[in-house]
Amino acid sequence: AEMYAGLQELGVANGEDLKETLTNCTEPLKAIEQFQTENGVLLPSLQYALPFLDLHGTPRLEFHQSVFDELREKLLERVSAIALEGKVEERYKKLEDLLEKSFSLVKMPSIQPVVMCVMKHLPKVPEKKLKLVMADKDLYKACAVEVKRQIWQDNQALFGDEVSPLLKQYILEKENILFSNDISFLQNFFSPSPKTRRQGEVVQKLTQMIGKNVKLYDMVLQFLRTLFLRTRNVHYCTLRAELLMSLHDLEISEICTVDPCHKFTWCLDACIREKFVDNKRARELQGFLDGVKKGQEQVLGDLSMILCDPFAINTLALSTIRHLQDLVGQDTLPRESPDLLLLLRMLSLGQGAWDMIDSQVFKEPKMEAELITRFLPLLMSFVVDDHTFTVDQKLPSEEKGPIPYPSTIPEAFTKFLQENRIACEIGLYYILHITKQRNKNAFLRLLPALVETFSDLAFSDIFLHLLTGNLTLLSDEFALEEFCTSLFDGFFLTACSRKENVHRHVLRLLLHLHHKVAPAKLESLQKALEPTKQSGEAVKELYNQLGEKLELRKPSPAQVTEAPSMELPLPTVPTPASR
What we know:
Elements: H1 15-23, H2 28-39, H3 46-55, H4 60-82, H5 88-102, H6 112-120, H7 127-135, H8 137-142, H9 145-152, H10 156-178, H11 194-197, H12 201-210, H13 214-231, H14 235-249, H15 253-256, H16 262-274, H17 279-290, H18 299-307, H19 310-330, H20 338-351, H21 353-359, H22 369-394, H23 411-419, H24 421-436, H25 440-446, H26 461-471, H27 481-496, H28 500-513, H29 519-528, H30 537-553
Organism: Platysteira castanea
Region (Disordered): 553-579
Protein name: NELFB factor
């Protein structure tokens, strides 16, 4: 029935008609011949050609099928051509007429592509037809994305069902990178360039689904805001920026010109590409922030979400550390550097994104003066400590012996890391910086401050992913008991039992560096890291992988040749028989 759907409405005979004719006739062969004449290709010259094909054993079905396929291809080409020629009203009028005539055949598999092609080229398919397509699962599945867009823009729930699996896939992809078993300081979560990231499957699919439709773009942004509020997952902020820049790459001006964040995101994207905010771009970004007019403060909610993207935070934090080092060399205080103050302003706006969108109070967070007057100078003093220690080591040693590296942490530093989000973020990036420099002394000095941090940021996946990568540069230190005790017992193991993600990151690190750790320490770590009943599959899987690797390292019994015993065997004494 599907094969002939809709033919009767057009007055064209179908298989059912032939069946009925043959059932009620006395001369079947004559009836078939008459049916062929009435419904065949009405071309006089064919009368002589068809018997010729019969002689070659070519079935009539094969002939008609090839003619049909050829005509359908020509019709599809013609429909696409009509969509581009003549005046706009005329071309669409032709297509609408064609749709009206052909729509009844939409369920007929052989004709369906033509009907779908007509709908695809119509900027506005009649609502009645859209509803019929939407109500039929197979038709909905078969129609082009151009038609689906027209359905989606008035059906947010249906669009949400289409987008939801893509968003889940996106988050999963990000988490898989953070928990990847490949640990390296050269290749990490932040290595791919923005342009490379935008080529990802999810971003490309969403870009195609949105097309030039502002309404659908707004819907996706609304989904991302809602999910960010519900989960606090910052990867949704990344997708917000990537989607806008993907539309920018395609020069979709219909959307880019109406998104107030477009130019700001474009400028920030260039900074992320360079992993640094230079002076020229800093001034541009400041211009955008200062240009938010009264009554338009709501745009700050979107800008804060763009700045909350981990790739943006990473760029701002790296630039901040670089600025602080430059200031040490220039004998300048943080409060005297406008560029540094702008970086802090943007970090503050990004870190405050969730609170701003949640409270719907659109104003920039107030910067704490102590962050600039006390915390940043404290960080600079650590840089000075390193320089001083390096110079001391090079000086000829006097009788008093070498000066030890400072081991105490100022109480204020620990307090800032616990109570101030921006200070904590910058502090963590400073620790990543010294680890990358292989500065073991500075790392061990500041590590205790990480046990308690603002909102447990030191145990967040992004920080631990970067830290484990940088720690590979200190791989030789893992043979030392003091280093391992400070790192594992003093930091990682303090959170393993309450935070499964930390458990996973420690196992990732050991899978990579187990051969560097002293055997006795490795054994105690293996016991401490044994999964509990509550542990997830990922932890159990990693623990088993580690166990297998350690098994392979043990020498096999055959290799261990036992030394001959030096003791003489004792003579056996018969036991007295019991009476």
